[in-house]
Structure formats: structure tokens, C-alpha cells
Amino acid sequence: QDLVSGENEEESNGINLMEFSDEILLHILSYVPCTDLVLNVRKTCRKLATLCLDKSLTHTVLLQKDYKVNKDKVKQLMRDIGKEIYQLNMAGCYWLPSSTTDHVTRCKNLVKLNLSGCRITSLRLSKMLSTLQHLRSLAIDVNPGFDASQLSSECKATLSRVSELKQTLYTPSYGVVPCCTSLEKLLLYFEILDRSREGFMLSGQLMVGESNVPHYQNLRVFYARLAPGYVNQEVVRLYLAVLSDRTPENLHAFLISAPGSFAETGATKNLLDSMARNVRLDALQLPKAWLNGSGLLQHLKFNNPFYFSFSRCTLSGGHLIQRVINGGKDLKSLTSLNLSGCVHCLAPESLFRRAEDDIDSSILESLVVSCCNLRHLNLSAAHHHSSESIGNHLCQLLSRLKHLLSLALPVCSITDVAANMEKPSTQPNAVPQTCGKKIRVGVQTYPRNLTEQACQKVESSVFWMLMRSLRFLETLEIIGSSFSSAMPRNEPAIRNSLPPCVRAQSVGDSEVAAISQLTYLQSLTLAQLPNIVTGSGLVSIGLQCQHLRTLSLANLGMMGKVVYMSALMDMLKHCKCLRDLRLEQPYLSAGSQFFQALSHCSSLQRLCIVSRSGTLQSDAVMSFMANCLEVVMCHMFMGESLTVCKNLQQSIVRSFQADRPALNVVIFPLLHEDLTEVIRDVPMRHLDEITLFKSRVAEEPPNLWW
């Protein structure tokens, strides 16, 4: 309150904050959560009271990762500025009671509303939507017990004007889709389990009385993402049945992401044939069974494509060049390309090729030249081995893509072939990767500084030069081509893992150190790098990559011993912006030293540790939770007994739940038979973003949802 009156004192110490122009102050305030602006900051002085209610700050309210918000704060926020809010995002606010959504009715001018991950009943949804006559964009969950017959006529009238709908299904249902007669964008997330909690098999048939006539005539974007399970496949076919009868003329994005086998049927074949005849697409993703062995790509027409995903398809490089990028013609509009698991995409043909054979650099060069504006590229989950030809290494070719913001590569693709042939593995006491008993191997303390000769050799590597050329990269994933996480989705934990690719054996500390050149790096994933000896490169990343927010490390070095723990602890002391940390490593010991180092990460919000035969110290965990006040998610799946896990979980919840309403704690033995039952209760936000390991680069089209 004394900010303005103390101007004279401020003159001797520096510039008074209140002397800045309104434009600068508004820009500063835009980084403050809306709840803090309205409920706290605007009470400090008259000037801030006015600025905090500026339309530029109240037009869009984002609560989706405001983990400190509670029901009372939402109630007060809606009471104070409800009429000024046009866009409200409450996605993933799983901790708020269902009654919280009652206060959204104060936002009479809402145009966009995201309630994904929020608990809401059919009756509450009906009451809320009945008052939102200007709503045009809606995101909701459809849970067991949802009943469309409880929706009022006023609610259905609002839904009839909605043009964008995102719907996450946890039960077989059309949800509100039949009520949305003006749909232009439809996003469907299928998270239906095959078995109930009682163990009964579920059916993909919809509930009796549900309308089966969705209105797709104005549809421009259709997106469906399926979790594993046959029920999800059955239900999505019901949504697609209407599309197969009449394909919307304005459809320009058709995307279906389905894991495993999703067989093509007569109805889906008719749909694809109709699309080939009647529409020109800008974005495409299909299940691998719908593309493999078919000539579909030859007949589909594209306008100005911005997103392609051929994940896990057997598409050859020859087909990619001829049918997708038109023989190397200009494709500057393409900004996102997902070729994850597309093992033959950089080879001329796939009939007689082995997955580990060298790539054809001319195919990659054509891709780079034609798609020069790529911002997101995923080449993971495949063996992309470069030949010895000078200047044709995969890293050298990718260095031309100056606009890249996110990149995913297999570990074996970054190997410097020439250097690799000159010298054997640098790892002393080399031990084969194994999943057997713990191996006791003496490891020297990691070197703080590389020698001048070593520096010159490292800095001349192709991967080092790639990192130097992609200075604006924000997301990087380096994942072993044979890596598979031990963390399950709907099945028991994986007990064994495949050995790394032979070409990947030399990738280790020096390659990790090269990543430290990425000054603007925000998210880093490293998995199955076998030649990590000390982890010294991690320290360089901690020092240089000060914007790092997400870090995921899995199976680094030899599997019988965590060789990089000392370096990791040094790294964490510098990660002041780190918010999400995921560690997956057998035999990991999470003791007091580790959690003391982790306590330096003052911004940390989510922690996930997956470790077969791993151990933890309960007192150290409790001390860490007390020191890191921002932590709202603590997931640990290790080798401790069920009793130890339950006691620690209960202690954390009992001690910290009252002050952290969003706190979600799961501590459970990794190999316990009931793990899948525990996983199903984890909020989807955490499960999808951090607990489950997956490649996230180009997983979805950019800006798919606001």
C-alpha cells in the first residue's frame, strides 16, 4: 500500500515499479495467475486495482495448472470478474468438487470453456450450459452414469450453437455429440477400460435410447485418440459409421491415433475411398493397418498440409517421397511430421530391407529440402543408421532445418560413424547390459572438465554440430530404438527389456554434454544411452539450460548400477525452473542425498520415479515434501514392500493435503499384481503427461486445442 507514497525513497534506490507505463505493467502482470491478480495483487494500490481488471487480463482465465486454486477462490473469482471472462480453461482441475462448476454460470459471456478432467454430472452440465448462450467451444468428460436425457432444452439449444467440441470418454456413449448440430471441430479421446473394477468384461455397445445420428455435415476437423483396448475400437467405429455414409465436403483434417492393431473394415474403407474422391486434406493420421499395403496415399489429395503422422506404419522412403511430398516438390506448409516407429521411412523400399540397414541419405535430403519449415519432427522408435559417406550423416542433414522447435531421434542415429570405427567404447570396466543381479563395478568420480584434446574431438562430432545449429530447439528426445518402459498402461509391469542397438553402444556422456548448447531447451528426454559412465554431461545441461522445465531420464548406462547419480544430484542444484522430473532406472536408491539435491528445484511440481528393485528412504521423502512447497504430484513405483509404500503414502497425504488441494500421491510396488488397478485412479493429466513414458514430439497437430 505504500508503493506509491514512497516515491521519494525509491528515487535513491532505483526506479519505482509504478513509474512504468501501463503497457509495460500489463505485460508484467500477464505472467501472474489470474486468481492472484484478482484476489491479491489488485488490493495493493489503486493503480494496480485498475490494471488487474483490464480486459487483456480478464478476457482469458487459465486455471488448468493453478494447483493452489480451490473452490472458494473460484467462487470469488467468478463473482468479481465473471462477466468479463470470455475464455475459461479449467482443464485437469481434478481436485475441485463437482459443485465448483455451478459458479461458471456467472460467466454469461463465455465463448470457450474447457472442463476436461473436471468432475461434472449430467444435471450440473445441463444447468450450466443453459445459461451460456454465447458458448462456441466446449471440452468435457463423459463418465459412467452420464445421461443425455437429463439435458434440458435450453442446454441443447446452447449445444446446437457449439462449433468446437472436445470429449473424453470413460464409458461407451455419444455424450453430447448428437446435440451439437453445428460442429466444425470434433476431438474425441477414448479412455474406456475393457474391464470394470469388479472384473466384468465391458461392451462397446452404447446405452439404450442414445441417438446414433451425430451431425457431421459442417465438420472440418475430426480427431480421435484411442487408449489400448478393444472397447475403444468398437466405440470409435460407431462414431465413424456416420462419416462413412456421407463425408463432409469441408473436411480438411482427419486424424485417428490408435495403438496396436486396429483393423480396417468395409465401412472405414468406404470412408477413405470417399475422402479420396471428395476432400483435400491439410492434416492426416491413420492407424497403421489402414495404410500398410494399400495405395491410399496415392489417391488422397492434399491442399496445404501442415501435419502428417505415419507413426508405426511400414511406409517406405520411396513411397514417402513419391506419394506424400510429391517427388520432392515444395512442401513449405508442413510444420509437423511424425515418423515414429516408421522403420523403413528413410529407405527406398522395405521388401528386402532389414530394420538395422543403413538409411538412404538422398531420401532424408529430399525430405529436408522439401519440408524446410518443419518445426516438429519425430524419427524415434526406429534404427536410422547413417553410412560412412562424408556429409550425408543424418545429423548433418537435419542441421539444415533451422526452424525446428522439437525433435525426437533414436540413440543409434546420432552415432558418429567415422569416430566410432576409430576407437572402441570409452566405457571402462565395460559390462554387458543385463537385468539380472546388481553388478558391483567401481566408477571413478566424473571429470569436471574435459581435456582440450577431448573437447576438440567432441566438438567435431556430427551430433555436437547438430545441437550447435539448432539453437532455438525447445524439446529434445533421444530414445533407444529398442527401449520400452517398465511402467504399464493396462497390463502388468514389464520385467525385462531388450538390449540397446549395437550402433548405440558408444553414445554416452559426450553426446549428453553436447545438448548443453541448447540455451532455450525446456523439455529433455534421454532413454537407453548405454555408454553413460559418469553422467558428467548432465551437469553441463543444468548449468547452461536454465529454461529446462521437464526432465525425463530412463535406463542410462549399465542396468545393474546407477552410475550417474552423483552427476544428477549436481545437475539438480542448478535447475531452478524444473517443474517435472521423471526417473526410470532399475536399482535406483532414492535416499537423503538425492532428495536434498532435489530440494534445490524450488519450482518442482511433479515427481515420478519408476525403479525395479529400487529403494527409498521414507524420512527423506517427507523432508523433501516439506521443503518443496510446490510439489503436488509424487508417484513412486519401486521395489519396496506394500506396507512401506502404503504407510509413506498415507503420511504424505495426512501431512500435506490440507495445504495442497491438488496433491496426488501414489506410492506402490512396481511388480505388484494390483498395479493396473492403482493406475486407473491416477488423474489423466498426470498419467498422460508424466507417469507413462512415451514420445510426445509431433504426437498431435500443433494448436489442436487452445
From TrEMBL:
Residues 14-61 form the F-box domain. PROSITE patterns: FBOX (PS50181). InterPro entries: F-box-like_dom_sf (IPR036047), F-box_dom (IPR001810), FBXL18_F-box (IPR047948), FBXL18_LRR (IPR045627), LRR_dom_sf (IPR032675). It comes from the Eukaryota. One of its GO terms (cellular component) is SCF ubiquitin ligase complex. CDD domains: F-box_FBXL18. This is FXL18 protein. It comes from Odontophorus gujanensis (marbled wood quail). The lineage of its organism: Eukaryota, Metazoa, Chordata, Craniata, Vertebrata. The gene is Fbxl18.
